[in-house]
Every structure is written in C-alpha cells, then in structure tokens.
Amino acid sequence: MRRLWLLFAQTVTICLGILFIVATLRPDWLHTPQPAPATPPAPEQGAPFSFAAAVAQARPAVVNVYTSKHVNVPVIPIPADPELERLFRDIPGFSRRKESTNLGSGVIVREDGYILTNYHVIEAADAIEVALSDGRQTRAAVVGADPESDLAVLKIDLPDLRAIAFNGSHEVRTGDVVLAIGNPFGVGQTTTMGIVSALGRNRLGINIYENFIQTDAAINPGNSGGALIDTSGRLIGINTAIYSESGGSLGIGFAIPAGAAQTIMEQIIKTGTVTRGWLGIEPQDITPDLARAFGLKQHDGVIIASVLRNGPAWQAGLRVGDIVLALNGEPVRDAIGFLNQIAPLPPSEKAKLRVVREGRRMELEVRVGTRPPIPKR
C-alpha cells in the first residue's frame, strides 16, 4: 500500500511540475480557442435613417406650377402711391403691358387631376402651366379658390396620375420628422428635412384663418403650394409661407394642415366656393386691462367689440360688451380661435353660446349665418 501511495504522490508531483512549466512557457496551450464573433448582417439599403421610400411615394404627386400674367408697368417710375397710380393710369403712353411670371408648387390630391396649391401662387394669372415629376407638362384650369385660407384648386387632364395620400387620423406632433417637397427658386423638385417646430401658429397676418404647422424644414420661394409629408409619405400640410428677412429660409416655415386643406378642397370641387359659418360679430381678446375694467377673474374667452345690426348674433340677443366663454360646450380661448370655431359651423344650424353679461352667466342660442365674401379690391 505504501508503494502505491508513493507512486501516486510522485505522479501528481510530476504532473504539477509539467503544468507549471507549460503555464509559464506556453500559456496559450491552456486556453480553449473561442469562435470568432459572427459578423453582423449589413443593414438593408436605405435603412434605418433614409426617407427614400417616403419621398418615392410622395414625389410623383408634387408638381411645379408656372404662371404668367400681363401687368401695366409705368414708363416713368413714380412713388408707390395708389392715388398717383389711379391719377396716371388712364393717361395714354404712361404705361406699357409687360408679361410677369411666377413659380410655385402644387400637390395632386386626386387621380382624376385635381391639384391643391396656394391662392397667391395663381392669383390673377392669365395662364397656368403644370410640370410633373415624370417630365410631362400641361395647362391647368382653376376650379376655385379661397383667398381667406390662401388655397386654390386646379384641374389637369392627363392619364396615369399619382395622387398623394392624406395623413387622415394620424396625429401630427411637435418634434415629428417632416419632409418638404417643392420647386424652390425654380431649380426643380427638391426635398428638404426638418421637424414640426410648433402647431397652431396664428396672428401672423398671412391669412384671415390661420392655424399653421411651423417647421424648420427649408422652405424657400417656389415651395409655396408644395407638400409637407411625414416619414411614411403621407400629406400633413401645404407649404404656404416663410419668415424671412432676406428672402431665403431662416428655418421658420408655415404649412396649412392637410385636414383643413382637404375640407376646403372638397367644398371647392363640389360647389366652386367655400362656405363658412358667421355670427356677425367682432371678437376681441381679453387683455389684463380689459379684465380689470370688467372685473373679470379669468382671461379666457373673448369680449364682443361690435355686433352687426340685424345679423345672426344681434337677432339672438348678443350685445357689445358681452363676454363669450364657450361655443357649443367648447371653451373659447381667444379671438382667432373663436373665429376658427365659428367657421366650420353649418349655416342655418343653431349654436349655443355661454356668455357673461354684467357679471351674470347666461346661455344664448344663435342661428348660424353664411360668411359674406370679401369685396374684391
């Protein structure tokens, strides 16, 4: 037994010695080779940070719009004064007719050839030419226009047209990535990228009814009437205006929301005009000074500055100095918002106003009228 134990001890000692020598001189022999890490699959072409698919879906529906009109240009420069212009307008030889051209963009919204664009793009045009992304060109006819929202609808007659998809119920949020497609400076169809900077912008003095999407996607002259799309290629707005001191993009652009544009477009196609609700009042924001003067504790709502005699509001009993807090149960925040709440109301239907008069709350029912058209200047 002792001989076996000595033999075992010697064997273990020899093995430990060999292990020590190997670990010192060739440690790599003791490590099991690890399999090489698998090479990650190459990302698919255009993913994940490309918007090529969205642009490919939307760009065939975006067109270039070229307009021309004849204007009278004075032979001798005169100050920009309407009275002087009227005085000299009829003098023979004072002015000569000159052709003026303008450029913009538009969006094919129906496959039967209807196009949405801005009213200021085609205003007073003698001829309108539309160029498609596939190179085709054709004349366009004006179906109707709505200067109060700066929208117009054109019609072209060509086969195989691609219409853009509206965003429908998809909510637009501040911070969403958006793409602007148009024809800036006439260089040809161009796509720029940015985000939704803000929603509900108004008081800009651009239109009567303002509820703009603000974006920092580069929008320049010629982009007007073009498409503002989301990353799925859906239309979320019609590019309309920029804030600029130089004429170029400063990262502040404005677009009419697609839902509002679609509603106006459908009315124009159906009737040739846009019908808006009207109460015959002039609302005014409640400023801190007015709130103190009327002893109000809240600044929400609007104060009625004037009421058209025998208009809808007058007949319902609304008077100057009344404060409107709600329309059909919806809170009234300010004068611009109040006008936007009135506009979609169907004429001849009744609307309920929650009013404060001399500190007493009351409910008034008014039959909505039709907003009269703005007289042409």
From TrEMBL:
Residues 268-334 form the PDZ domain. Keywords: Hydrolase, Protease. Pfam families: PDZ_2, Trypsin_2. GO terms for molecular function: serine-type endopeptidase activity. CDD domains: cpPDZ1_DegP-like. The keyword Repeat does not apply. One of its GO terms (biological process) is proteolysis. This is Trypsin-like peptidase domain-containing protein. It comes from Parapusillimonas granuli. The lineage of its organism: Bacteria, Pseudomonadati, Pseudomonadota, Betaproteobacteria, Burkholderiales.
